[in-house]
């Protein structure tokens, strides 16, 4: 973008591939999925073909057509104009606020498992979960403000928080299945999906888990040779993510009956069961800590990428111009990152209002899914619209070009719409289902209305400034 201040291109292929792993492969989704039983393995495959592959193909082509800083903001602006671009960026930005809290709640619960009954009091304490989330959000903001190098190494290190625990879980599950069989019967009947209110939250979570491929493109001006680097990094990261999710969910089903898997502690409980069964109890403590590291890394990666959206909107004067500020020493959009971090801490605290720790976790997940998938609708629509735009020889197209691109985008659009509908169903153990739905719908409408109001106010202010000039 010609108007954008200079940013440092410090993200290489290795950094980007690990970024996709840490941003998309979150071990909490394996436990959330496994709680639905063996049929969720089929849903993983459905999410792969109906959402992840269309999303990856769209991101690869759109980031090649428009590799600028801002990603989804730039793509929707080119397709539908400034208002749609701002709403897409705003909802994407806002969706991560409850996401950060939910993933850090999972990390907070996971690190308590090795301490057994001694940690029961903390495990039911909202104050502990709020403090854990606030502390790590603060650390993440400070490191990302210091520069892209600090941020990317935090992401790279935290990627072992998903790779190592999932690898151990899968290896122990294979040995346990060979010696003792599976704790969850896996038959043709159990593999058949059955839609119900209880399963809806699990299904929407599976599709949500495959999101994040588009995140790195928001840092297009900070990636070395983005047209070449992004597609290969998506391919490598996508293979790892898919294997991790499907393999990890199957491993948990081998370790525990599906009814014994919980959203907050299910992964570490499964690891605990397998390690005790195989006489490897010593692996529990370091692995549980790595799971907590995975939560921190997922938060850091998402924060570093999505903070670029308000930064670009500030440059375009659809947010206060201060959001477009670059730190003179670290060359980062420090105002956008700092404001984003402060808002995330506030949501982590407010998410506990009037509910239990587990209830807050489920509500935060549902809030994140609804807000997060609205921009995906616009992304897939942009993919369809921009097929009418000429593409030069340097543009990496989807194999099959326009017909295949439109087909994949339509599949992704339909899958996204279904996921939004499924995410509105409250969890089975949510004590106040009406309140949960009200929170999700109300929070979504408030965020959408706030975005429209800010866009309108900033556009009016800009017009007045032009008239005055």
What does this structure look like?
- It is a single chain.
- With 469 residues, the chain is mainly alpha-helical.
- It has one domain (13-468): Amino acid/polyamine transporter I.
- Helix content is 70%, strand content 0%.
- The two termini are 25 Å apart.
Q: Level of helix content?
A: over 70%
Low-confidence stretches: none
| Arithmetic mean of pLDDT | 83
Write down the domain tally. 1
CATH classification, class level = Mainly Alpha
DSSP helix count? Answer: 18
Task: Write out key terms for the chains shown.
Amino acid/polyamine transporter I; mainly alpha; 70% helix; 469 residues
Helices and strands in order:
Elements: H1 13-24, H2 28-34, H3 40-65, H4 72-80, H5 82-110, H6 120-123, H7 126-145, H8 148-158, H9 160-180, H10 197-209, H11 226-255, H12 266-277, H13 284-306, H14 308-315, H15 334-350, H16 357-385, H17 401-423, H18 433-468
